[in-house]
Amino acid sequence: MAKFELRLPKMGESVAEATITNWLKNVGDHIAADEAVLEIATDKVDSEVPSEVTGVLSEILFQVNDVVQVGQIIAYIETEGGVVVDAPKEETTAANIQAVEQTIAVAHATASAPVDFSNSEKFYSPLVKNIAKEEGVSLAELEAMNGTGKEGRVTKSDILEYVKNRGSQPAPQAAAPAVAQPAVQAQPVAQKAAPVSVNGQDEVVEMDRMRKLISGYMVQSVQTSAHVQSFIEVDVTNIVKWRDKVKNAFEKREGEKLTFTPIFMEAVAKALKDFPGMNISVDGEYIIKKKNINLGMAAALPNGNLIVPVIKNADQLNLVGMAKAVNDLGNRAKAGKLKPDDTQGGTYTVTNVGTFGSVFGTPIINQPQVGILALGAIRKVPAVIETPEGDFIGIRQKMFLSHSYDHRVVDGALGGSFVKRVAEYLEAFDVNRDY
């Protein structure tokens, strides 16, 4: 028998770790090649890890809710044959693991005391607790951190930044803050949310993992960006008529349904080329000008949660390519088949609130981007129509564009001009164009 090392596969350039959410197989179970062994979750998507070989699951190295690094061995599978599978990788990996274990051992040795979270009145997420234990961060050090999360909570970024810089500064002493600590802790007590009354007929349900992530992202964004909005009404009568005329022929020729979304995305991509100041992100006191235009497309999931797959290099797609990308990402999002790379690298986001009948909205920016556009419902409304013979009242198809942008780096002139340019592209739509 030979041992195969089942490792956490690479899931995207910016994905370094994942949380194990469910083991689909138990020790002793037979596994076929390409059969799913466990389910994992990253910050954005859930996915399965399949086996590359046929064999029997002999050992599980991590449990549910454990955080695993990409490339780390998570289980062993016994296979037929006398050769150890992946032997060349083991030597390198063993050295890396040994180095990590030595680092952790040193960190534990320098910690002032074991981390006992029961002695703290503050809330720490399971991920923060795991990092604290692995890096030897004591409770005194955690208590002294200035968290950037809700109500001053310590986030993953806070503790990783602290661990990164801990070697260059003295660790907080447990005795020093003991005198000043009561005064520091007095504020969070005052900031606690009002208690919620629950009676016997109410049902208390814990948020699922994705809802917790969304909740954290939304609060973080509101606390980070100075949100401001601009609204503009757009006459899309020509677009509605053109789509009604060509949608059947489009589907017959391309094998794809033609919705309004790719038409709107095309206009947004053009406007971002005209106003590159909207295609940026913020990193502390620095502005990062993005070379590529990658449009995030907010999509509602069947369970009520939200995910934002990304159309890469959207400005380089024609309408057919945009329609295929929109449909593909939308269908895979609903089916839970998105890959981690599908949600990475967005530079600007569009959300279609009109799907649910909303006329306009005030969307929250998807960090670290600086803008998000909400598409309102298309409605038939009476409007003044100007002609050479004079003005008259007619029925037009109109919608609102709601643009939220980060006032830290985007002023009203840029934010308003951008959404106006999107409207101009939509109203100037060529009804004689091919698709």
From TrEMBL:
This protein's cofactor list reads: (R)-lipoate
Q: What is its EC number?
A: 2.3.1.-
The enzyme's main class, written as a single word, is transferase
Q: GO molecular-function annotation terms?
A: acetyltransferase activity; lipoic acid binding
Statement: the UniProt record of this protein carries the keyword Acyltransferase: yes
Location of the Peripheral subunit-binding (PSBD) domain: 123-163
Q: Which InterPro entries match?
A: 2-oxoA_DH_lipoyl-BS, 2-oxoacid_DH_actylTfrase, 2-oxoacid_DH_E2_comp, Biotin_lipoyl, CAT-like_dom_sf, E3-bd_dom_sf, PSBD, Single_hybrid_motif
Q: Which residues form the Lipoyl-binding domain?
A: 3-78
Q: Name one GO cellular component term.
A: cytoplasm
According to the lineage, what is the superkingdom?
Answer: Bacteria
Which UniProt keywords are given for this protein, alphabetically ordered? Acyltransferase, Lipoyl, Transferase
Which Pfam families does the entry mention? 2-oxoacid_dh, Biotin_lipoyl, E3_binding
Assembly and binders = Forms a 24-polypeptide structural core with octahedral symmetry.
Similarity section: Belongs to the 2-oxoacid dehydrogenase family.
| Stated name of the protein | Dihydrolipoamide acetyltransferase component of pyruvate dehydrogenase complex
Q: Which organism is it from?
A: Flavobacterium cerinum
